[in-house]
Amino acid sequence: MKERGTPSPIETVRVTAPVLAQRSTMARTRKRLLVTGGVFALMYGAVAVQLSLASLLAPSLTPTQRESLAESQKQEDAPPTADDQTADQSAQSQLVAPILDRLRAPITDRNGQVLATSLPTADLIADPKKMREYGYDPLTVATQIVKIMPTLSVDWVARRLSSNSTYLTLAYHISPTQELALNDLGVIGIDFNAGERRSYPMGVMAAQVLGTVDVDGHGLGGAEQAFDKRLNDDATPLRLSIDVRVQSAVRDELSQGMATFTAEAGAGIVMDVHTGEILGMVSMPDYDANQYSQATPAQRMNHALASVYEPGSTFKLQTSSMALQYGLIHIWDQFDAAHPIKFGRFTITDYKGKHRFLYLPEVLAYSSNLGASHIADLVGADRQRAWLAKMGMFQRVPIELPEATSHVLYPKGNAWGRLATMTIGFGQGIAVSPLHVVRGTAIIANGGNMIRPTILAQDPVPPPGGGLVVQAAATTANPPAEPLLSSANADIMRRLMRLVVTTGYGKAANVPGYFVGGKTGTSEKISGHGYLKHSNVAAFICVFPMDNPRFAVYMMLDNPHGTDATHGYSTAGAVAAPMAGRVIARIAPILGLLPDNTDAAAIDEGLSIPLQPVVNQILPRPFVIPVSAPQPSPAPSSDNGAQRQAVMPAAASVQFAAR
């Protein structure tokens, strides 16, 4: 027996040659299995990636994008190059960028609020010929498809799949869930095309201004059509001049006005009188831009651009301006408003006339047709026509939107005689769009400087010598033309516009601290048999603040009906002027203009003009806010809401005494 602690004897095990050979074979087999397993793992990984691309990404790509993706995959399989490290760093952006860049560019308001954007979607397509080659039954496949897409009809889908076509579209803009479910059917011949769905997050907001796109992604109406190529070629957002806050206020007031006065239609415009930028443009009735196909022609109509109306008494601003500029009248000239003007079977009268001779301020304040007729008669047909042509009244307003009408109505040739001259003097016998009226009034208010209305936001530029920031006008590329009004006449017109609101029929538009000036305009509607006596268009055009004109506001109702509150009246002073006043009160702070109550008395005195002359006195000079006076802070908008600083030129003193 072996003692404890004694080492065991060494045992010798003899391995025969066949056993050694067997062990070597097993080792080599294990290595081969590991290598083979690794290869299969790589292969299955590659297949998984390809299936993911085919089922998730490829359906949302166009054929061009698919080719681009295939090419990038070939490059990945190619031998490494010196640029591989750089390429790897941007691999993700190279994969995603083509998808994003192909989408139609978004449209925003001036402050970056998205008005229109495109979402990637897929369209369901089929190859019926290939499906037949693989033995698929059209009815069976149609039943499977309709279970996933219940809005389709089994019979309709089955008929389509029974055709001899090799390519047809069964549905546009299907949801991702539907796309995955349809892909899981595994039907050969069912495929997907990349698509995009245009979405309008603000719904009804600026629907007619935006327009829409067709199934192929091409613009239909509005900015979508006007900038179609740019939106498809450039992925950066298109920035409009519209301010959704202003747009919302105008739409709200116009909608309430239509409901209160049961009007057929309406329009509202807010425009910068220096740059021509449209900050708000509303047409009623309107529609949800996402439901364009369900909108009626009346809802799609942009009345601010496409409809023409007789401007009524708003044109008396044009009549007074041209007569002053031609040097044919003086503010203290008197005009016969005591006797009707008769031309054959036509008679010109005043609404609530004063039945006496009126001075020019009274003609505007009391909106005298007779006074305006006599002023226009002094100007004459040729000079009147030339003036209105310079104001752009006979041509399409040069704005980017395709809806702007060129079908303005005015007498042609010899038809523009003395009677036409007189009636056009008070806005009858000529029909223009609301934007024509806004542009013409803005030119008068800004000192006679021609402007080009635009729907595009203009980049701010510093003024010469520093100071307040102003917007670059849409026509800055063209040399400035000679103002249509002298500084003295521009000063008089601003005073007269202010007088209409402080003393005349536009009182309801007055907003304390904003020094509104404007003109009412009520015109009878025309039918095939002449004027309708109990159907009119009520409009009010105004500019604020008149000591430093910045913005024009236009509000119009088509065929409003009076209420008890208006004592049955549906005239512009009772219907449109109050809407304009409420709009100004709401949008002025948004645009960076705070009411000036501190200097209100001095500013009003500087804008004042009496209805009748006072002998041996002169008009007060315009009030200028001292440079050291505190200025209101601008609102956070791209138009910077330039601070109020009076820039009205100090006109030559005008004697009160009549000539």
Characterization of the model:
With 659 residues, the protein is α+β, with helices and mostly antiparallel strands. The strands form six sheets. Strands 1, 2, 3, 4 and 7 form a five-stranded mixed beta sheet that branches. Helix 15 packs parallel to helix 17. It is elongated, with a radius of gyration of 37 Å.
SS elements, strand count: 18
Strand content: 15-25%
Helical amount among residues, as a percent range?
25-40%
Oligomer: single chain
Counting DSSP H or I runs of 4 or more residues, the number of helices is 23
- Structural class call reads alpha+beta
Biggest sheet character = 5 strands, mixed
- End-to-end distance: 155 Å
Q: What's the overall geometry?
A: elongated
What do the pLDDT scores average to? 82
Spatial extent as radius of gyration = 37 Å
Low-confidence stretches: 1-6, 53-64, 76-100, 461-479, 625-659
